[in-house]
Amino acid sequence: MAARPAAGRRAVEVLLEAELPRAEGRRLVLVDAVWAGGEEEREFTVQVDGVARRVHVTDQDSPLGIADAWRHHTTAVDPDGDSVLVVTGLVPADQLGWDLRGHAVRRRPLAVERADIVKQLFGAGDLDTRMVRENWLLDALLEAEPSGGWPRAGSVLTRNRALRALLAARVGLGDTSDESLDLDADTLFDWSRTPAGPRRFAELPEQERTGLTTWLEEVTGPAAPTLLALAADGRGADALPLGALASAALTCPAAADAGFALGTLFGRALGSFDALAPYASAATGVLTRWIAQAEAGGSAGTDARARVLAVLERADRLADTAHLTGLLAGDRLLPSGYRARLRTLAASLDGRPGPARTALRDLADHQLAVLHADSTERARTAVRLLRWLDGPQAAQESVGRSVRHHLESTGWVDLATGILAEGDASRDSGIGEAYHRLIGRVRDRRRQLDESFAATLAIWTEAASQQAPHGALLIEDVLAQAAAPLARDGGRPLVLVLDGMSADVAVELAAGLAPRSWTEIVPASPVGRRPGRLAAVAMLPTLTRISRASLLSGAPAEGGQDTERAGFTAFWKKRHREAVLFHKGGYEGTAGHRLAPALLEALADERRVIGVIVNTIDDALADGRDNGRARWRPTDIAKLADLLDAARGAGRPVLLVSDHGHILDRSPRESGPAVSEGVQGARWRTGPAGPGEVELTGPRVRTAGGRITAAWRDDLRYTARQAGYHGGASLAEVTVPVLAFVPAGIEIPAGWTALPAENTTPEWWRGDAEAAQPQEPAPAPRGGKRGGGGKGGGSRKQQPQHESLFSQPGRGTVGEQTVRSKPFETQREFVRNAPGNTAVAAVLDALLTAGGKLSPAAVAAAAQAATGKSERNPQRFVTMLERLLNIDGYPVLQLVESGRTVHLDRELLRQQFPEGTAP
Asked: Residue 685: in which H helix or E strand, if any?
């Protein structure tokens, strides 16, 4: 005799819901199945035609038992009611008498067909034939039905849909009512990190776990069995960390030893070592995709970063318990591998740059390099400083040249030192000590430069004046030589004075301005000289009361706000312009206003030149900043972003200038002030000069009878400790950065030219692979066409060229061939006011030489170098190039990285202009 099927409460409920509406009052239901429910489930309620009916279940193994149960139910349990008695058991149907059958629904035992019940539960007309033979799946679907029921399946309930629904109900993988979830390795590993999912899987019957595992392996790949075995073993949370470890172990030099140790970590969850490779591959694929999400940034990137680091730190802890850390030190994914590479780099900082550069490449090659961006950038900064130390020391030939070189190079040294001084996020003492030693070497060399500069400054100061500056830009001449040229032809500059802004602060602020919003400009230079940023020399001592008053008055002066306001107005009145100067408290907006309405009104006035003084940097020198950082970004300076936005909205160029610089106190906490006579300020006094000091005298010394003693050593002060100081004679204090910007898309003023971002950093900062882009225009050939405005671009006699990384257009270059190609000539007919062929060819060659990427200013400089014609609107110039080259919308050339970079796709260029790029 075949074994009876089993029926639990839900199967009986479904049977009753189907049969009782047509039972014609009968209350006995014979079920051809054994009871599979619990004792507490033998009494329950079922809804029939909207009426609750009580149900009593009894299991009987003989006809007599069934008869007694029925008699007891009708006489003792519910003689006059409508409750139902359900009898299950092992009694064959042919042993039941007709008198008993007469009371039963349908007068016979009812079969429990699980497949039919499942169809009914899903509202399906038919069932996938494969499911009929899978009793474990049918039983699981009956048992796991959600409180709201299974979703309607339509005409046929497929096996895949049933299994998806079962996974959602049983282990929380997906949603029973939503089939949109992509079941893949990412989903499975993500689920393994949930607190309840793996535990619920472990609690399933073994046959159900096996069935689900087999199906998930078919759907998601060969990693599923190992992952689910870990979940069944109560270690689902370690599934992804173990996968990362497996990848590291399989690729390490001692793979056999690592694999053996790894087997102990997996335990019985690992069916065979053959399963290790696909499991490791799937896990690293998931982590690699998460890392890509993290690198993309945003809130989703932040979440992805946290997930990746949590998984990999756990992998490192597991490796430590299995004594695998040493074997896996070279791994490209584990945090321990990143830290090992960082320690290797730190150990190389006491030598020459070569080994450090190699160590930096290895560090940058690690998959977590971008996620640990601060540590990676700090390590890169250390190597930059090592390159600087290995290079030649600049000669302090003159004060003017020294301050310009400080803005171009040694100011970047100060910035790099500040970055390194913050320390590494890993808090590794070995790395910190290596950085400390490097900073010490840098400071020693910087002191040599400051000492040399102080000696040069002492000689220069004796006679330097506005009438005889001896090659230096004086702070009192900044308005005349920088602001006034911006005001020509109706220009309306905003003069932003950032009190105390040193060169290191200035270069970082400039780098932080969005190129889509601002274009940095510098005065055009004679042929043969590369244009660069302006740097002025402060008054002495380098104090606000002297230097700022002189800056804003356009002449040597001393005084407070009234002096500055009167001097600023008088300077511009001589040039027939109205001007207004806003000090602290005058430009900040009241409640509801970001900026003062008076300032906004002045900015909108086309007749006025505006000056604004911002004290954030100077104020921070007293007590330091709340975040403890020495670096400054535009958002760190109060109202700077609002002031720049307002200037851009008004179409005003901006002159960003300081009155003096500053130094930071990096001396030991226990060090005190120097004991000296004649102390007048933190960094200057009267009396004979001693070690670390220089005596200064002459017309530029505005106090103490024209003779002072100023400190040039960065660790020398005369007053109580502060975060930073000014008043001394170091390069950082004397140099006054002068930076100019115009709103992006606005024509560059005459006499000025765009400064490519590639030309703002010194060579030692960029390294070997990042060469600067020359900007000086080549002399236009006499008697030839300058603009190349026709299709042929005009013929040019080859002239001697200055050394340049730009490929000058000539016969046979890719750019020259491209502009002669038929597709380009055809496209050119549809673009009005297109750049000349000579300019386009030069840009293409320059981009190809640079690897396909340049800043918009560098692109404009390439055209200018080839044609001698200044491109005074780099953004518009790039837009015209896009119209010329992007045939049918294909992005041959486009602005990327938020407008910072022009990218040329060489392969698309070859496809769109095959005649011009054929080998």
From this structure: strand 684-685
Task: Find the distance separating the first CA and the last CA of the chain, reported in whole Å.
Answer: 84
What's phi and psi for 53, nearest 5 deg?
-115, 130
Is residue 121 a contact partner of residue 148, using CB atoms and an 8 Å limit? no
How many CA atoms does the CB half-sphere of 441 hold within 13 Å?
Answer: 17
Helix (H) or strand (E) holding 504: helix 503-512
Q: Which two tokens stand for residue 481?
A: 């030589």
Residues 6+ apart with CB under 8 A from 683: 541, 542, 663, 710, 711, 716, 717, 718, 725, 726, 727, 728, 729, 733
- SS3 of 874-911: HHHHHHHHHHHHCHHHCCCEEEECCCCEEEECHHHHHH
Half-sphere exposure (CA, 13 Å, Cβ side) for 765?
18
d(CA 563, CA 284): 67
Mean pLDDT of the chain: 89
Which of these, 195, 136, 186, lies nearest to 6 by C-alpha position?
136
Q: What is the rounded distance in angstroms from the CA atom of residue 716 to the CA atom of residue 40?
A: 86
Q: Which of 394, 403, 385 is nearest to 442 (CA)?
A: 385
Yes or no: say if 468 and 628 are a contact pair by the CB < 8 Å rule.
no
Q: From its phi and psi, is residue 576 left (phi > 0), alpha (psi between -120 and 50) or beta?
A: left
Question: Residues 68-75: what's their mean pLDDT?
Answer: 92
Q: Are 478 and 738 in contact (CB under 8 A)?
A: yes
Q: Is 630 helix (H, G, I), strand (E, B) or coil?
A: coil
Cis peptide, bond prior to residue 541, ω within 30 of zero? yes
Q: For residue 888, how many other CB atoms are within 10 A of its CB?
A: 6
- CA 492 to chain centroid: 36
pTM, full prediction = 0.79
What is the C-alpha to C-alpha distance for residues 225 and 274, in angstroms, rounded to an integer?
Answer: 12
Which residues have C-beta within 8 Å of that of residue 601, sequence separation ≥ 6?
Answer: none
Distance of alpha carbon 795 from alpha carbon 214, whole angstroms? 74
**CA dihedral for 134, 136, 142, 146, sign (positive or negative):** negative
pLDDT at 767 over 80: no
| Of 19-23, 120-124, 154-158, 306-310, highest mean pLDDT | 306-310
- Three-state secondary structure call for residue 347: helix
- Rounded Cα–Cα distance for residues 679 and 663 (Å): 18
SS3 (DSSP) at 179: coil
Question: Above pLDDT 90, what percent of the chain?
Answer: 66
- Read off the tokens for 672: 């005190």
894 bridge partner residues: 903
Rounded to whole angstroms, the Cα distance separating 584 from 132 reads 82
Residue tagged 């400089």 (tokens): 861
Q: Which pair of structure tokens corresponds to residue 907?
A: 């392969």
Question: Residue 180 above 80 pLDDT?
Answer: no
- CA proximity to 728, closest of 461, 538, 475: 538
Q: Are 73 and 85 within 8 A, CB to CB?
A: yes
φ, ψ at 852 (rounded to 5°)? 100, 0
CA 223/CA 243 separation, integer angstroms? 9
Give just the sign of the alpha carbon dihedral 155, 161, 166, 172.
negative
Question: What residues have CB less than 8 Å from 22, skipping those under 6 apart?
Answer: none
In tens, the pLDDT along 231-278 reads 999 999 999 999 999 999 888 888 777 778 888 889 888 888 888 899
Contact indicator for 6, 33 with CB cutoff of 8 Å: yes
